[in-house]
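Q: Sequence in, structure out?
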Amino acid sequence: MFKTACSQHLTCFIGFSSIFKNTLNKYSTECQRTIKVGFIGRPNAGKSSLINSCIGRHFLPVSNIPHTSQQLLTCVKTFTDTQVIFQDTPGLINPAIRKKRFRIDEKLDIVRDCLSQSDLIAVVVDSHISITYPYISPEIQMILREYENLPSVLLLNKVDTIQRKKIKCLAKSLTRPPLDVPMHLCKTPIDTGGWDRSKAKECEGILKFIYYVCSISKYNPWPYEPETAITFGLDVLTTELTKEALLHVTRNEIPFVVTPETTITFQDATMIFRILIRCPSERYIRILKIEEGRLRDHIDKHFRNELKSIKYSIEIMYAS
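A: Exactly. Output:
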């Protein structure tokens, strides 16, 4: 069990990457180690924030609105001789909830696709919510049962929101066999046989989680170059940042009914990001035009940190 402070509480961990100085010389393939970690959990548990903190950069969209992550996104960090591949998945909710915008079945398929190629399952739990509901949710138990051959580790997230003396009690409640499934939340009880406590390491902080992940990695050639940070393109990154900006500056259903797309072109040594936001009606376009300045500022803030020596411009367009 790893205790971490995350989401808006993770600033104290952002600088940890300086401790792990990546050696630029390439290790021989015989000495290279690799591990893939699949992060699963309920919506807004802090999966994306944890991964951003682990790699020391802000590449995955985060907000305090559930269902920020809608697809499988992969980040990479090379720690000396070990390359860790972090896979972020959409939040899991009860399959009985059939709301169209949540696309439950599609998200379950994404999680299964992620775990089918993972070496370790990291189950992220929001400690603040789990104090009130101290059990692993049925949908996560279902996934753990399907992939019981994979080792799993429990990440108690946002522990700075609860009293320290409650952390061990919470960990015990979440890992005692058999895992509790309240009957009113699950029509068919899931008999998982419990979650092996030996898979939960009791230590604190993201650094120790990284040490643990590296310690169980296996000798395999690195699938990516040591400088690689993300496996998706800059256009996808810009689209995800736009979704994050929409969640931060707009309200209600707007972020879930509009669809941003990004194309990147070059003109006179300037990188131009053209963001097209498709809206279901003119009403949404009028609302977004009012908030366009804040949207642009949110995206630009990220690019200023990542594209320090590159000239760029951001263009936002709309279509219905």
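The chain is about 30% helix and 20% strand.
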